Amino acid sequence: AGARVSRASNQVPDLVANARTYLPLFVAEMTAFLPPPAIEDVKVKIAALSPQDESPRALWLRSTMQSHREWIMTDLARGRQRAQWRALFHDWDVVLCPPFSTPAFPHNYIPVQAYRRAIIDGEEVTYTAQILWPGVASAVLLPGTVAPIERTPAGLPVGVQIMGPYLEDRTTIEFARLIEREFGGFVPPPGLA
Q1: Which DSSP state fits 32?
Q2: Alpha-carbon Rg of the chain, whole angstroms?
Q3: pTM attached to this predicted model
Q4: CA 147 to chain CA centroid, nearest Å
Q5: Contact assessment for residue 39 and residue 4, using Cβ atoms and an 8 Å cutoff
Q6: Cβ neighbourhood burial of 91 (10 Å; 0-12, 13-18, 19+)
């Protein structure tokens, strides 16, 4: 449709570093009001971790108990990553990436999110393990708009996350409108029409 497209760029910040910035900031917000028994449970789980364990689960647990100084250092890393994205957006209007680790899946009615599971590449993972893709944009406070582009064999939507420059939400929304024009837009899944 006339757009200049690249499938890779050395300007894209390190996405692993992005995740290691996003998780501590996200977890600090999500767990700030845990009741004392839950905090004690987290402390026990952290004590059982190997010092070499750098898994997302270990990062999540440790982030629950991070110090204010650790949070400040993570926030400073976010600032450096934001500068990298700002440089990238001098050359590109938007960046496309997955919005989630899986396409849409049937609703999971388990009330405690920590007990929900999803299947990725045939492997069962926690539902919260999928938050890293939305964190690509939100970790560095960039707009992220999701638009449908395809359907799974079961008829559920597959989306794309459209990232744009800081405070340029209208850019990502307009790009979503253009994608909708090219891909046909949202169609309710079977049984929801």
Answers
A1: T
A2: 19
A3: 0.83
A4: 15
A5: no
A6: exposed
